[in-house]
Specification:
With 217 residues, this protein is of the alpha+beta class. The chain has 2 domains: 3-85 and 198-211, Glutaredoxin; 91-196, Glutathione S-transferase Yfyf (Class Pi), Chain A, domain 2 (Up-down Bundle). 53% of the residues lie in helices and 9% in strands. It has helices at 21-31, 48-51, 72-81, 91-121, 128-150, 162-171, 184-195, 197-211, and strands spanning 3-8, 35-40, 61-64, 67-70. Strands 2-1-3-4 form a 4-stranded mixed sheet, with helices on one face. Strand 3 (61-64) and strand 4 (67-70) form a beta hairpin. It is globular and about 45 Å long. The relative contact order is 0.15.
Length: 217
């Protein structure tokens, strides 16, 4: 059955790989699953056809036969279930990888998204200058234990997993903030994720949509 995902017709990030469809593309590339992409405009995202797939009118969505999914974590988890390279066979290692997926979305990402709100949507507010350092400190509060847990290892729990895919995807949002420079092992961890051939293909495909540059074959 053909897999179809949705992505922005024109991504707000201009193809920097920060839109959430990149996470799904990456997981599909790691799993070696062919897929098609249906591009949707901001207007179309709020119309009935798309809302039937994603009730909150966002991207990405995932369709495979009679199955339709939304929410990046759920989609990546579904993809990972059928591929040992994203979720280990060992039951305990598998559970730990899933735990890191939840940690990425529920613990690490929220303060990072708050930073984006503070800079982009609230940057012109009179209280923004005072609020920004507080937001940055909340991010550091998440990165410090993450850095300690990773230590000198390549990945969070042995081999690369969907947990690493989600954590790296979240940390990529800090690329322009400079805060990752305070945690060299996390910066190197993100670089390892970006260097994976599957990520490179996913990134190139997302970039091509926004810049017209041909994707990697």
């Amino acid at each position: 059955m053909t897999i179809t995902i949705t992505a922005f017709e024109r991504s707000p990030d201009g193809g920097k790989g920060l839109a959430r469809d990149t996470r799904v593309r990456w997981a599909l590339e790691e799993a070696g699953r062919p897929y098609e992409v249906r591009l949707v405009s901001f207007k179309a995202m709020k119309e009935p056809a798309h809302l039937a797939l994603h009730p909150f009118g966002q991207i990405p969505t995932y369709e495979e036969g009679d199955l339709a999914l939304f929410e990046t974590g759920a989609i990546v988890f579904h993809i990972a279930q059928g591929y040992a390279g994203l979720l280990p066979d060992d039951a305990n290692a598998r559970a730990r990888a899933i735990t890191w997926m939840f940690a990425a979305l529920n613990t690490v990402e929220p303060p990072i998204l708050d930073l984006m709100v503070a800079k982009i949507l609230e940057g012109d507010k009179p209280w923004s200058k005072d609020r920004l350092p507080l937001v940055m400190d909340r991010i550091r509060d998440r990165l410090k234990p993450l850095s300690a847990r990773l230590g000198s290892a390549d990945w969070l729990d042995g081999a690369f997993s969907a947990g690493d895919l989600m954590i790296v995807s979240v940390l990529l949002r800090l690329r322009m903030s400079g805060i990752l420079d305070e945690f060299p092992n996390l910066a190197a961890y993100v670089a390892r994720g970006e260097a994976r051939p599957a990520y490179q293909r996913a990134f190139a495909d997302q970039l091509a949509v926004n810049t017209g540059k041909p994707p990697l074959s």
